[in-house]
C-alpha cells in the first residue's frame, strides 16, 4: 500500500492528564500558574496522586496537531517515542483511533512513557507539569524515509529540540522532505524554548532547513528580543519564507513571500481551556496549505480550529473540524 499524507508531525509523545484545579493547589505544589515545568518520575507520581478526576489521552503538541489534521478529513501521520507500558498503550490506541498513522517503534527496557499533568484553574489558564521519559529517546533511526517522503508537510514541535539526538532526527527528516520536493515546518512552542535555542531556531530559518514557522506573538517577540510585534514580524519576513503568528483574541496573521494576510479570532461562547489552541491552529493552517488553499484561507481555518479548542477541556477537537468548517461556510479543499 502506497503512503500519501497531507501532514507528518514529529514531537514529544506524551499522555496528557487534564484536571480542574483550584489556585491553592498550585501554591501547595510551589508552581507558577500558566507555566510549563519539567519534573522527574517521583514528582509526576506525587502530582498524579493529588489530582482529582481527570481526562487522559494521547497528547504532546505535534500529536495534537496531527489529530486536528485528521479531524478536518486530512491524512495525518505522527512520529514520537513511547515505552512498552500502560501509558504507551494508551497513547498508541488513542492516536490511532483518531485516524493518525503511528508506527514508531516503542522503547524497550528504558524510561517510561512521558506524561503531562495539566492543572486547569477557574480562569481557564493551564499549568503544565511534564515528565519526559521515553519521548526524549527519539533518534534518527525512528525517521523512516518512506513516511517523510509521503507527506506534503513535515512539522516539528520546538519542545523536541532539547535532546541532541532529536535534533539530528529532525534535520534528517527535513533533508528527506526537501529531497522529495516536500516542505518542512517548525513551531517555536514556548517563549522559554525560544530563549534556550534562539540561535539554532534562527539558523534553521535562515539556512532554509525549515520553510514555514509557527509562533504565537510572545514567541515571535522573544525570538528577536523585542517588545514590538511589528518589529518581530518584519524580522520573520526577512529570515524565513513563510510564517503564521497567532495573536490570541486578535486572531492571527500569516505571510508567504510578499503576501501578508490576517484573520479574526473565532467567536467563542465560553473560554474554558486554552490547552492546545496553537496546536489546532497549526492543524487547520497546515491542512489547508497542504491541499493548495491560500494563506488567507489557511489562516481562517486555523483560527476556526483554535477557537473550537478553547471551548472545552482538552487539546483535541471535540467535534469534527471538517463539519465545523462547512457549517461556518468556510472553503475546504477537495
From TrEMBL:
Family as reported in the entry's similarity comment: Belongs to the carbohydrate kinase PfkB family.
PANTHER family reported in the protein's UniProt record: CARBOHYDRATE KINASE PFKB DOMAIN-CONTAINING PROTEIN, SUGAR KINASE
Protein name: Adenosine kinase
A Pfam family recorded for this sequence: PfkB
Residue stretches making up the Carbohydrate kinase PfkB domain: 54-316
InterPro entries, per database record: Carb_kinase_PfkB-like, PfkB_dom, Ribokinase-like
Sorted UniProt keywords: Kinase, Transferase
Molecular function per GO: kinase activity
Top-rank taxon: Bacteria
UniProt cross-references to SUPFAM superfamilies, sorted A to Z: Ribokinase-like (SSF53613)
Secreted recorded as keyword: no
UniProt keyword annotation of Transcription present: no
Amino acid at each position: 500500500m502506497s503512503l500519501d499524507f497531507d501532514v507528518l508531525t514529529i514531537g514529544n509523545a506524551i499522555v496528557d492528564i487534564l484536571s480542574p484545579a483550584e489556585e491553592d493547589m498550585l501554591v501547595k505544589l510551589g508552581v507558577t500558574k500558566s507555566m510549563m515545568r519539567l519534573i522527574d518520575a517521583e514528582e509526576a507520581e506525587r502530582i498524579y496522586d493529588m489530582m482529582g478526576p481527570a481526562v487522559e489521552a494521547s497528547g504532546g503538541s505535534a500529536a495534537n496537531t496531527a489529530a486536528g489534521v485528521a479531524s478536518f478529513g486530512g491524512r495525518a501521520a505522527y512520529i514520537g517515542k513511547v515505552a512498552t507500558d500502560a501509558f504507551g498503550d494508551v497513547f498508541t490506541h488513542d492516536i490511532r483511533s483518531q485516524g493518525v498513522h503511528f508506527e514508531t517503534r516503542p522503547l524497550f527496557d528504558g524510561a517510561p512513557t512521558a506524561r503531562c499533568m495539566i492543572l486547569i484553574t477557574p480562569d481557564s489558564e493551564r499549568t503544565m507539569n511534564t515528565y519526559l521519559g521515553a519521548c526524549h529517546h527519539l533518534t534518527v533511526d525512528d525517521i523512516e524515509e518512506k513516511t517523510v517522503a509521503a507527506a506534503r508537510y513535515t512539522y516539528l514541535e520546538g519542545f523536541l529540540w532539547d535532546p541532541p539526538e532529536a535534533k539530528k532526527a529532525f534535520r534528517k527528516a527535513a533533508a528527506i522532505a526537501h529531497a522529495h520536493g516536500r516542505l518542512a515546518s517548525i513551531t517555536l512552542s514556548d517563549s522559554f524554548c525560544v530563549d534556550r535555542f534562539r540561535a539554532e531556531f534562527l539558523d534553521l530559518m535562515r539556512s532554509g532547513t525549515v520553510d514555514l514557522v509557527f509562533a504565537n506573538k510572545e514567541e515571535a517577540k522573544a525570538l528577536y528580543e523585542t517588545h514590538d510585534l511589528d518589529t518581530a514580524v518584519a524580522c520573520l519576513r526577512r529570515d524565513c519564507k513563510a510564517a503564521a503568528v497567532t495573536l490570541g483574541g486578535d486572531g492571527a496573521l500569516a505571510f508567504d513571500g510578499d503576501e501578508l494576510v490576517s484573520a479574526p479570532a473565532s467567536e467563542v461562547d465560553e473560554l474554558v481551556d486554552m490547552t492546545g489552541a496553537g496546536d489546532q491552529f497549526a492543524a487547520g493552517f497546515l491542512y489547508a496549505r497542504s491541499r493548495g488553499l491560500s494563506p488567507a484561507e489557511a489562516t481562517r481555518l486555523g483560527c476556526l480550529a483554535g477557537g473550537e479548542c478553547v471551548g472545552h477541556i482538552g487539546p483535541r477537537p471535540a467535534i469534527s473540524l471538517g463539519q465545523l468548517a462547512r457549517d461556518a461556510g468556510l472553503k475546504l479543499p477537495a
